[in-house]
Specification:
Elements lengths: L9 H6 L8 H9 L5 H7 L7 H28 L29 H15 L1 H11 L12 H28 L9 H32 L33 H19 L33 H4 L12 E4 L4 E4 L1 H6 L3 E8 L5 E10 H8 L6 E6 L8 E5 H5 L4 E6 L2 E2 L9 E3 L12 E7 L5
């Protein structure tokens, strides 16, 4: 038995008649028709550490982190270029947020936003599970609501819980390239994110005053297991009806949750830090992509793209089109043009990124060969014939950046076939899927074309 009995009032709260709102008859009728086993299931959750304080601490952690996940998700959608018709999903109707041309500086911008979005989504899994565990007895309340206001509250909670579980599950499957669901990930993740965001804002508006009150109350983090007792009965029913003996303290719950989050962070951060690549056990493309200067991860290999060796052999030509002329250049002709070297990151939507040293021809120098002198766009096409990302459109700021390259070499050697030989696009802060590989054609458009 626990050395500290449940606080006075626990039994009274469990047996006292609940307060009902309008229409009272409906709620009382539901109360009288209780489903079989609902009381037994609800009474089985007896941990004395559950209560407003623990739930509020976990909620405060999520309240800090989840907005970052939402904002970085929106920024990543903007980075894909909705103005150029290449963000997914394309037609979002009135859910269209304010957009802008994605900047090229700082060069690591997309690496940070996408890396933070994916890493936080993984790291928060233990916190989300702990938060759900802290409120799980509420799922067995009967009747499920006692007033119209509570119906709306429970509906927002249903959308919140369902939304975060859906976003987390599909996101984790996506970064592992496990497309087990029969729908388009981009569309589902976009609309699921909006549903979750609306539910989160509604839930915070309802619960924030209670969370603040609970956090201002007496702290429980330093209470050892032997002295752990239930919190006083609360209006939300988070405290167990008939608490059992404590087997872990609230500090232990928080330590276990935080430890799980730190462990996932340690297994994930190597996706974005080259020096820690071997620690990234969750990296879907492997921790050892190969030796040599081309030994860094790839998302889509040359064989997966269906690009044959004959396509990239001696007969390969790059077609460059502009307002004044069209030219065809082989690799020798490209290597004869002024070469520029830049150390730039490349970041994938699945969360991994890497920084390498690229050498090639500036895009603005290629534009100068065919006109216009100040291109508004550059449409890049790949030898890859199918797929969502076999072409990309770059806006004027991306084309004109001094480090925007048609890369021919990486780390002092020719590109490997998997990295885009004979030529690929590298632009600062550009999403990796738009750094087109196996380039066959670039068309520069003027202001009128844009």
């Amino acid at each position: 038995m626990s050395p500290h009995p449940p606080p006075t009032g626990s039994d009274e709260r469990a047996t006292a008649g609940p307060a009902y709102g309008f229409p009272t008859g409906l709620w009382r009728g539901l109360e009288r028709r209780r489903p079989p086993g609902v009381d037994a299931v609800a009474a089985a959750w007896r941990s004395p550490v559950r209560g407003p304080w623990l739930t509020s601490v976990l909620g405060a952690a999520l309240l800090v982190a989840l907005p970052l996940v939402v904002v970085t998700g929106l920024l990543d959608w903007i980075a894909y270029g909705p103005r150029l018709g290449q963000a997914f999903p394309r037609d979002v109707g009135w859910l269209h947020p304010p957009v802008f041309d994605w900047p090229t500086r700082p060069a690591w911008l997309f690496r940070v936003t996408q890396g933070l979005h994916v890493t936080l989504g993984i790291v928060l899994v233990p916190v989300v599970l702990a938060k759900l565990w802290s409120v799980v007895p509420k799922l067995f309340d009967w009747p499920p609501a006692r007033s119209p206001a509570q119906v709306l509250e429970r509906l927002s909670l249903l959308l919140l819980v369902g939304g975060i579980l859906f976003q987390t599950a599909t996101g984790l499957l996506n970064i592992q390239y496990a497309y087990l669901f029969g729908f388009d990930f981009y569309t589902a993740h976009w609309y699921g994110g909006w549903i979750f965001t609306v539910a989160l804002v509604s839930h915070v508006a309802i619960k924030l005053p209670r969370m603040v009150t609970a956090l201002r109350g007496p702290g429980f983090a330093r209470t050892p297991v032997a002295a752990t007792t239930p919190e006083p009965p609360d209006r939300d029913g988070l405290v167990a009806r008939r608490p059992g003996p404590a087997t872990v303290s609230r500090r232990g719950v928080l330590a276990l949750t935080g430890g799980g989050a730190l462990l996932l962070a340690a297994l994930t951060v190597g996706q974005s830090v080259d020096a820690l690549r071997r620690t990234a056990l969750l990296l879907p493309r492997g921790r050892r992509p190969g030796p040599g200067p081309n030994g860094f991860p790839v998302n889509r290999t040359v064989s997966a793209a269906g690009v044959a060796p004959a396509d990239t052999g001696a007969g390969w030509r790059l077609t460059v089109r502009g307002a004044d002329r069209t030219v065809a250049l082989d690799r020798a002709a490209l290597l004869a043009l002024p070469q520029h070297t830049a150390r730039l990151p490349i970041a994938c939507v699945e969360g991994w990124s890497t920084e390498q040293t690229w050498t090639g021809v500036r895009l603005r120098d290629l534009a100068a060969l065919v006109g216009p002198s100040d291109p508004a766009t550059a449409r890049v096409r790949s030898l890859e014939r199918a797929g969502l990302f076999n072409q990309a459109v770059l806006h004027a700021g991306q084309v004109g950046d001094g480090d925007a390259l048609l890369a021919l070499r990486v780390n002092g050697v020719d590109l490997a076939p998997d990295h885009g030989f004979p030529a690929r696009i590298i632009v600062p802060a550009l999403p990796g899927v738009h750094c087109t590989k196996w380039v066959r054609e670039i068309t520069f458009g003027g202001r009128g074309d844009a």
